Amino acid sequence: MRPSPLSPHDNGPSRRRAGLMLAGAVVLPAAVLRPAHATSAAMQAAIQAWAGSASAAASIRDGRVELDVPPLVDNGNLVSITVRMTSPMTATDHVREIAVFNDGNPQPEVARFEFSLRSGRAQAALNIRLATTQNLVAVARLSDGSLWQQRAEVVVVLAACIE
Amino acid sequence: MATARRGGGGAGRLHRVRLDAHPNAVARTLISKPESAKPGEVVEVRATIAHPMETGLRLDATGVAVPRLILRSFVCHEREQLVFASTFSTAVAANPSVRFFVRMGDAPLTLTLRWVGDAGFDQREFVTVNVGG
């Protein structure tokens, strides 16, 4: 079997550097592309406040948490959303909280869901209002402190908040 | 699924209640949960409460802002132990319906569901899940 370029037996400094450069080349474009998603400043500020700091907000990674919301909503006054994350929900590995934010309602917060070991499953559903076609973001905080997000775009035909 | 109802009303229909007129009026609730479950099983609970969730951003017919009147939180405890909590904003729809999960222990579940909101709103409901097949 050939040793992998990054195996501990292959300790030539030039080859190790090449490996690091390769890793950087793969990671960097993803980091550069992320701000291309259109999100309002108010939503970003709310996510940062929830995360606790700018550095915490910057550490949010895409994936793992799921946000179920219909892509096309007839009536914005009643939209059912579900958040979930696959987790063993043990003392050492569980989901602490999932928060949902939006960029099209008057206020960027939608709801927060806190879980415990007694929850057994990190999943919750709630009926919400959407004022207009917009993005929803669910952000999860795990017991190890890591943060994960999932974005969903929702097209609203009949907006909420209009009499 | 068994359903616990409170506040009367036929066939579990939810009706809007004028909480601004009676801040401490009992709101209608509808709570779904299994009758019984095995130890270690994860069971689903659905808790709905009649509430206008008035955002405070709407104007009435005379152009005056309707005061905000929302529920701010929902919390579920199993005896003294926190199971699940949710914080609501004005984006939560009228008659909030929250679904969540609870892991069964060896003993029957005794759940306290509590909603807290504007104008001193504070309501608790109690449901149980027996241990069984």
Account of the protein in words:
- The complex is a heterodimer of chains A (163) and B (133).
- In chain A, 23% of the residues lie in helices and 37% in strands.
- With 163 residues, chain A is α+β, with helices and mostly antiparallel strands.
- Chain A is built from three helices and nine strands; from the N terminus they run H-H-H-E-E-E-E-E-E-E-E-E.
- In chain A, strands 1, 3, 5, 6, 8 and 9 form a six-stranded mixed beta sheet that branches. A three-stranded antiparallel beta sheet of chain A has the order 2-4-7, with no helix packed on it.
- The relative contact order of chain B is 0.26.
- The model of chain B is unreliable at 8-21 (pLDDT under 50).
- In chain B, strands 3-9-8-5-6 form a five-stranded mixed beta sheet, with no helix packed on it. Chain B has a four-stranded antiparallel beta sheet with strand order 1-2-4-7, with no helix packed on it.
- With 133 residues, chain B is an all-beta fold.
- In chain B, a hairpin with a 2-residue loop joins strand 5 and strand 6 (81-88).
- Chain B contains no helices and nine strands.
- The A-B interface holds A 77-79, 82, 89, 102, 105-107, 109-121, 123-130, 160-161, 163 and B 42, 55, 57-58, 78, 81-103.
- Strand 6 of chain A pairs antiparallel with strand 6 of chain B.
Uncertain spans of chain A: 1-38
String of helices and strands of chain B: EEEEEEEEE
User: Sheet bearing the most strands of chain A, described?
Assistant: 6 strands, mixed
Give the helix level of chain A as a range of percent. Answer: 10-25%
What is the N-to-C succession of helices and strands of chain A?
HHHEEEEEEEEE
DSSP summary: helix tally of chain B: 0
Alpha-beta content class of chain A: alpha+beta
Low-pLDDT segments, ≥5 res of chain B: 8-21
Helix-strand makeup class of chain B: mainly beta
> How much β-strand is present in the residues of chain A?
35-45%
**Overall 3D form of chain B:** elongated
